[in-house]
Amino acid sequence: MAELANVLRTWRDRVSPEAVGLPGGPDRRAPGLRREELAALAGLSVDYVVRLEQGRSTNPSPQVLGALTRALRLNQDERDHLYRAAGAAVPPALGVPQHITPGIQRIVDRLGDTPVSVYSAAWDPLLWNPLWSALLGDPSIYSGREANLVWRWFTADHSRVLYEEDARRAFARDLVADLHAASGRYPVDGQLAELIADLRRASPAFEELWGTSSVGRHVEGHKTIDNPTVGRVTLDCDVLAAPGTDMKIVVYTAVPGTTDAEKLQLLRVAGLQSFATES
Length: 279
What we know:
Blueprint: H1 2-14, H2 35-42, H3 46-53, H4 62-71, H5 76-85, H6 102-110, E1 116-119, E2 125-128, H7 130-136, H8 149-155, E3 161-162, H9 165-185, H10 190-202, H11 204-210, E4 220-227, E5 231-242, E6 247-253, H12 259-278
Helix pairs in contact: 2-3, 4-5, 7-12, 10-11
């Protein structure tokens, strides 16, 4: 429990009294919270906090660790480290993250000349730029369950992406394996569980693939899109992980100097103008 004792002392010292609504002052000897202040914030006895910081108390309960996490204002990575240092199982995330961070928003904003979108771990579209809409169609025309990429793929796919049969089967396997992995990371997310249950009822193909229990991620591929403005265009599709959010940033790019790159450039002009007019 030496690591637990060390992080508790270190993290207590860095939390200012003002940050947790306590009075500060120049006569304080502790650089951060006093032990009695941490104990009060976490609902613990001062003696128990002392024993934890001295490594004399073992196996703190998940409830105690949760209270310390809140009192010390830990982020998710720090919380996970606290649980591991205490020899406890890291609690699962409560639900699929859907909050677009400022960093992700900046990424999308700065890739204005590239079709880019952001999906949740369950493949719900959260954000996209105008060039994405010009290339693949406006995601905002869908709502609720119909907006989910996996649902549309297995129940009523109207995608502009063209697939050879082998590529179609591979993409379907990737989607199901990806959703399987998400269900393991978010076991208490009711909406995700409902999506999976409905897919299993609505699609025999999904049910068959779900039964294989494959777990994985769809990360890249070459996609041919039948676009109404520029015709067929083949692009590289990469799925990037957004650190700390479990979101997917999907980016389409063309090899420079190719006909496909020229078509994408044309779409930036003609397609975006058309999309702006329709909007």
